[in-house]
Amino acid sequence: MNSLHQHDQHDDLHLYNIRTDLAVEARELASEQGEAGALQGVKEESYEEDGIYITKIDVITEEGARAIGKLPGSYLTIEVPKLRNKDSKLQNRVATKFAQEFERFLTAVGITETAKVLLIGLGNWNVTPDALGPIVVENVMVTRHYFELMPEQVAPGYRQVSAIAPGVLGLTGIETSEIVQGIVEKSKPDLVIAVDSLASRALERVNTTIQIANTGINPGSGIGNKRKGITKDVLGVPVIAIGVPTVVFASTIVNNSIEMMINHFRQETKDTQKIMGMLDALEENERLTLVKEVLSPLGHDLVVTPKEIDEFIEDIANIIASGLNAALHGAIDSDNVAAYTH
Description:
Initiates the rapid degradation of small, acid-soluble proteins during spore germination. It is an enzyme of class 3 (hydrolase). This protein is α/β, with parallel strands linked by helices. The chain has a single domain, classed as HybD-like (Rossmann fold). The protein is built from twelve helices and nine strands. Strands 1, 2, 3, 4, 5, 6, 7, 8 and 9 form a nine-stranded mixed sheet that branches. Helix 3 crosses helix 12, helix 4 packs across helix 12 and helix 9 packs across helix 11.
């Protein structure tokens, strides 16, 4: 985590100082900020399957993209509030659902069963909240070397998969995007999958949410500001991004706490301004700006993660790795990935 998250200047939400990498939260924020008209260019569908909540957001027009601060493309969010309960059966169901949804993304970007795939585990393996990508790389099934060295011994139903955790600029001195570009030029994959840690505006979504997007990793996304993008335009091949929110900014937590206090007092009295003063009259974006102005000079606008992050990060990384194994290799039953969950 070599630097704090910074949003792309393209984002309209940047004007509100909102810190979220999730399309579902950006969509919620745009609605709260009165962007309903512009959201005509954003299509949303959501449903629930036995505790697993799925939200599909398609950003169709440039107007919709500006309204929610996300590039045109498809975003799918899997939210499982009970995922922190360490229920192995639930984890297996989530991995299965993830595999099924990821297969649809592969089909949508034209990836066949024999297409070669490169998995990039972004992040710093020395910093637990930023280690999602490297842990997924450790647990995914890599096969490219078998195809290169002993192709006659590879059973049907497997494809060429390679994987690498390139580290971060502070460790390597090289931009992550440049490392990935070099690998893509040499190994010539048909698809790049990038796994990264994200920031959320809601504590309840931390380590319980998975986002899949066909837009790749864009400048400023993820916990660390990676500057150069890992996108189809940069690499020349389709890029599917997988992200999990692992942190929330302290300013976001303080702002949400103030909002909860105001709502609590409103249950007791209509005149909450006597209690909360000017904070009661401020819009959310104005209040968040005020909180940041107070915390930032003191160095208190910290990146916050749950104290159980070590267990959480391992569990959700294994879910993603197991789901990827099932989605990428036809020999693995994508309807039941329990046997492939570490």
